[in-house]
Amino acid sequence: MIIAIILAILVIVAIFKKGIPTLHAHWNTLIDEFDYSTKDFYEKLTEELKSHGIEKIRITSKLISTGNAMSRKRLYLRVSWKNYTYDCCLAPYGKGTFISWWMYSKKTGFELLVSKIPFVGGYLVRAFFPVTYYTVDTSSMFMTYAQSSVVKVIDDITKEKGVRSLTEADKKPIMRDIFNR
Predict the structure, then answer these.
(1) Max Cα–Cα distance, the chain, nearest Å
(2) Which domain of life, per UniProt (predicted)?
(3) For the segment 127-173, what is each residue's pLDDT rounded down to a tens digit?
(4) Residue 78: φ, ψ to 5°
(5) 3-class SS at 58?
(6) FRET pair for 78, CA 20 to 30 Å: which of 22, 52, 102, 136?
(7) Rounded CA gap, 155 and 78, in Å?
(8) pTM for this prediction
(9) How far, in Å, CA of 174 to CA of 134, rounded?
(10) CB 29: neighbour CB atoms within 10 A?
């Protein structure tokens, strides 16, 4: 009886627990001899992201630690949609400006719980949480939407300031296999 209660509690906790993020893609670039306000960039990026009319997008500013709990925090722009999170950073670096983003997806607590079942967890995850065309497409849509917004804002700013714009090679994200189990 006690084992059943403990198991029920674990299942309930797993269902409501936030998932563990898995890196899907990232991107970065350094624009030499360029200085721009982080907050101004985030305002322009927020405006650009909202202009696409995507429903249920959440855009917030987030202070993220640069190291341990006692370290400095850096301001990021966090864009969330479904179980995807996109963190964008603009920061001065030497005489230039560094821009990066990281895209994560989150597995649900229940999926993580199922995956831990000895011997059959992997099979059950593939059976009950399959990677579908829809899953791959929505991930790609969100990443493309966010990346094109960042690149457009950078292009607008560099054009306005008379600075060299990014090359096509500079604009390509680095992909990870998000769906590898």
Answers:
(1) 72
(2) Bacteria
(3) 988 888 998 899 889 999 999 999 999 999 999 888 887 877 777 77
(4) -105, 125
(5) strand
(6) 136
(7) 21
(8) 0.77
(9) 21
(10) 16
Q: Which amino acid is at 70?
A: M
Share of the chain above pLDDT 70, in %: 87
Does residue 95 contact residue 25 with C-beta atoms inside 8 Å? no
100, two tokens:
């990066």
| Total number of residues shown for the chain | 181
Domain ranges of the chain: 2-175
Q: 23: part of which helix (H) or strand (E)?
A: strand 21-31
- What DSSP element (H or E) covers 64? strand 58-65
Quick one: which of 140, 174, 167, 175 has its CA closest to 151? 167
d(CA 166, CA 141): 22
